[in-house]
Design goal:
Order of helices and strands: EHEHEEHEHEHEHEHEHHH
Distance between the termini: 20 Å
Largest sheet: 6 strands, parallel
Number of helices: 10
């Protein structure tokens, strides 16, 4: 189950925790935070084993929910590699891509502000549904920022294939699948130096302080102008993405269930 358990009690239970950002900041309504916190605490207390999708999330389960480490197992998410060879980086459009809901936690407002330092003809594409506080975030987006709304898997594939830079300066992530997706498509990545993102990115991304608009802007400019660095990150990113397979995640998860069943 995802961070919650049904009311009925099973003989053995495993709960998967993806993140606990609701407990750490005001990224949602107070009513949702109260309900989520109660469900998460109940699930953590009643679970025999807990799967966390990153070591960062596992550490949060321990510290925020007071759960002993012995009940925790870390299983990283995987990524689907492209079925065809991605377009060469030099043939990409001057396009900065962000994938995720438009909301405070994703740090969209600072990304937009940082992007304004990029020269023409660069554009910023925000691929994702409107989330908490989206209207205020997009108020001063400007005509070089494109908001797609929800995109299908096919549309997302095309965006990853067109983009020359992927920017993901999120304030809090339990894992961060989009950074691996971008890496798999050969897009150089800018990501936050906080939460689970350093764990996922390794040395295959430019890591920035997500609170600093200047750092985000500098990283964008650096990748736009330093093609050697961009190509190096694209190469390291492909290798990094290949280390996260869904097959490995399934096997690890299956072993944990077998561990519990005895």
């Amino acid at each position: 189950m995802n961070q919650r358990l049904p009311r009925w009690r099973a003989r053995r239970t495993v709960t998967t925790f993806h993140d606990l950002f609701v407990l750490t900041s005001e990224y949602s309504t107070s009513e949702f935070r109260t309900r989520f916190t109660a469900l998460a605490r109940d699930a953590a207390e009643r679970s025999d084993l807990i799967i966390a999708v990153s070591q960062f999330t596992a550490d949060q389960v321990c510290s925020l929910l007071r759960i002993e480490p012995a009940r925790l197992r870390v299983v990283h998410h995987g990524v689907h590699l492209p079925s065809t060879t991605p377009l060469a980086l030099d043939k990409r459009e001057p396009l900065v891509l962000h994938v995720g809901a438009i909301q405070k936690r994703k740090n969209t407002s600072r990304l937009i502000e940082a992007f304004h330092a990029m020269p023409h003809p660069w554009r910023l594409v925000l691929a994702g549904s409107a989330g908490y506080g989206a209207d205020e975030i997009l108020r001063n987006a400007g005509d070089r920022v494109e908001v797609t709304g929800y995109v299908t898997a096919s549309e997302l594939h095309k965006l990853y294939s067109r983009a020359a830079i992927f920017a993901f300066p999120s304030l809090d992530e339990g894992f961060g699948i989009p950074v691996l997706e971008a890496m798999a498509y050969g897009v150089p990545v800018i990501a936050s130096n906080t939460s689970a993102l350093p764990e996922v990115c390794g040395d295959a991304a430019l890591l920035v302080n997500p609170i600093s608009v200047d750092e985000i802007a500098a990283a964008l400019t650096q990748l736009a102008t330093n093609r050697t660095l961009a190509h190096e990150l694209a190469r390291h990113g492909k290798a990094r993405a290949a280390q996260f397979s869904w097959a490995a995640a399934v096997t690890r998860t299956w072993n944990i269930y077998n561990e519990l069943s005895g």
